[in-house]
Design a protein that fits this description.
It is a single chain. By secondary structure, the protein is mainly alpha-helical. The protein is globular, with a radius of gyration of 20 Å. Strand 1 and strand 2 form a beta hairpin. Helix content is 69%, strand content 1%. Helix 5 packs across helix 13, helix 9 runs antiparallel to helix 10 and helix 9 packs across helix 13.
């Protein structure tokens, strides 16, 4: 079978890339001077402790201009959701290309895929080694050498805002095993298992981070740059590829059903609420239980993909 690119998915990928770039520009470069701060650090000191709702709606709803600004602010601040689209599309593209080439040896298949990705990885490492020596303030103080050295064994980001590359490479390296599981189990079992593993891992890492020490990998918003923290989104894309390869109409009809869209909107709302502080303030015997952050990006991943 001939492998054809999906223009619609390329459009989604382009939109997601622009959305991610937009959130970084909006938050780091536009908002600080707009609210009268000379740099991002001053702005972060004030906005950092603020609630998520206050960050979404920084201006009161007392004029049309303020309402429009708040709506634009919401759109850009949600730009981090573009990352979820990337993982789903990566799982879909990798699995679909393998399904269409079942007779190709795994060595040749993975060699071609990794060659497309690995040069970018080494470029990131080179950039992370050179640029901070020239401009220590370039990454808003988020660069640290400990992350840099971990990045050599593909366990952490080389430079800030590049962390997506690392779980993606880990998915490529473990794709043979995950693809075998996709073929061994039903679609439902495959998706639910990936969701359970991802949420359990994230919950355990965050419990340690909230109560004992910060996560060894990552921070409190992104609990680790290991692929397992994004397993559900990647496996969801793989599952969609399997269904689409056998019956394209079935997948399209399922994703466009009103009930599916309604569920996606509900999951999107629950996911956003999961990132709020009140969803992660529950305590048991003095131990903070961050339930919201454990599932929020998995729900957002499904919701935003279906909606877009």
């Amino acid at each position: 079978m001939k492998y054809n690119r999906f223009q619609e998915l390329d459009m989604m990928r382009g939109f997601a890339a622009c959305w991610v770039v937009g959130v970084h520009f909006w938050y780091f470069n536009f908002l600080p001077p707009f609210f009268g701060y000379s740099n991002f650090f001053e702005y972060a000191k004030v906005v950092g402790p603020a609630s998520t709702i206050a960050k979404f709606f920084p201006l009161p709803f007392n004029s049309v201009g303020n309402i429009v600004f708040d709506l634009v602010n919401i759109f850009f601040l949600l730009g981090y959701q573009g990352v979820h689209i990337f993982f789903i599309l990566s799982g879909f593209g990798l699995a679909y290309s393998r399904i269409l080439k079942p007779d190709e040896s795994w060595i040749n298949f993975m060699r071609k895929k990794i060659i497309r990705l690995y040069p970018t990885y080494w470029i990131l490492l080179a950039v992370s080694l050179i640029i901070p020596r020239l401009r220590a303030d370039l990454f808003y103080g988020y660069f640290d050498w400990w992350s840099f050295w971990r990045s050599w064994i593909i366990l952490d980001k080389a430079i800030p805002f590049s962390w997506f590359m690392f779980p993606l490479i880990q998915f490529y390296l473990s794709f043979f095993f995950i693809f075998k599981l996709l073929n061994k189990y039903s679609i439902k079992q495959f998706i639910l298992t990936s969701f359970f593993i991802k949420v359990t891992y994230t919950f355990l890492v965050l419990i340690l981070g909230f109560n004992l020490f910060k996560p060894i990998l990552g921070d409190m918003v992104y609990p680790g740059y290991l692929a397992i923290s994004r397993l559900f989104e990647f496996c969801l894309g793989m599952a969609m590829a399997k269904v689409y390869a056998s019956n394209p109409t079935l997948l399209i009809n399922y994703l466009t059903k009103p009930v599916t869209i309604a569920l996606a909107i509900i999951f999107e709302i629950l996911g956003i609420m999961g990132s709020f502080s009140f969803s992660n303030a529950l305590k048991f015997l003095g131990v903070i239980l961050p339930f919201g952050l454990s599932f929020y990006d998995a729900f957002i991943g499904f919701g935003i993909f279906v909606i877009i």
